[in-house]
Write a structure and sequence with these properties.
216 residues, alpha/beta, Rossmann fold, 5-stranded parallel sheet, two-stranded antiparallel sheet, 7 strands, 51% helix, binds BIS(adenosine)-5'-pentaphosphate
Length: 216
């Protein structure tokens, strides 16, 4: 299974990518998580990306494209769910060229959407387990004990870019730089549109049904 998950911050891309990875073994490749790992180990790429991420802006295309190429080379042969990549037309064109070189076809580009008020509420109430990326939400999916992961018992943290003012920038950046990809992939005939406002399990069911229908 080879999918791209597209949609604004907070639409549920990461939540659904982790579910698809668990059920179908298609590896979740989250450019946001990869960049946060680079920052945590203070790599050259991590320090180049830091300021952009703190401001809620996109990291330059050239850095992202080379990071994705290395990631796919390291995990050749497995399916994938691209979570948060591509995010610009330049990234999408580079990814198309890479897929052609590898002889891989996409099973679909899934667009999750939700309104700005919901997205802002979800992001500002999100808590993450930094050890494995699992997310909770104090409004819709709280942990049993506030601030503690249900499964590994370790602390949950809030992402620095989930502050209200940075969330507003991220949503604006999505509208200006990433939303044009909706028309790009619609023109390729691969776009699958899913209502991201539905409960998590309903979103998963709709997504799996739509991907299977496309494969028939
Ligand atoms: P990244 O980490 O990719 O963040 P994002 O795209 O802004 O996406 P999020 O992780 O915030 O949202 P999501 O859609 O995954 O939602 P989630 O499932 O967590 O990127 C961070 C930064 O890295 C960028 O700003 C940029 O600087 C840089 N970057 C990354 N990729 C880049 C690229 N390709 N090019 C350039 N720069 C790049 O859900 C959110 C919350 O809602 C959670 O609490 C969850 O529990 C809850 N929730 C999810 N689904 C539902 C539902 N159906 N109902 C109710 N609650 C739900």
């Amino acid at each position: 299974m080879r999918l791209i998950f597209l949609g604004p911050p907070g639409a549920g891309k990461g939540t659904q990518a982790r579910i698809i990875e668990e059920r179908f073994g298609a590896r979740q490749i989250s450019t946001g998580d990869l960049l946060r790992e680079h920052r945590a180990r203070k790599s050259e790429l991590g320090s180049q990306a830091e300021g952009f991420m703190q401001r809620g802006e996109l990291v330059p295309d050239a850095l992202i494209i080379s990071m994705i190429e290395s990631e796919l080379d390291a995990h050749a042969g497995t399916g994938f769910v691209m979570d948060g990549f591509p995010r610009t037309i330049a990234q999408a064109e580079a990814f198309d060229a890479l897929l052609t070189r590898k002889g891989w076809a996409l099973d679909g580009v899934v667009l999750f959407d939700a309104d700005r008020t919901t997205l802002t509420q979800r992001l500002t109430s999100r808590w993450t387990n930094p050890r494995n990326g699992r997310t909770y939400n104090t409004l819709s999916n709280p942990p049993r004990v506030i601030g503690i992961d249900d499964e590994d018992g370790g602390p949950l943290v809030q992402r620095e870019d989930d502050k209200p003012e940075t969330v507003a920038t991220r949503l604006d950046v999505y509208e200006a730089q990433t939303k044009p990809l909706v028309a790009y992939y619609r023109a390729q005939g691969v776009l699958i549109e899913i209502d991201g406002l539905a409960p998590v399990s309903d979103v998963t069911s709709a997504l799996i049904a739509a991907v299977q229908k496309r494969g028939e």
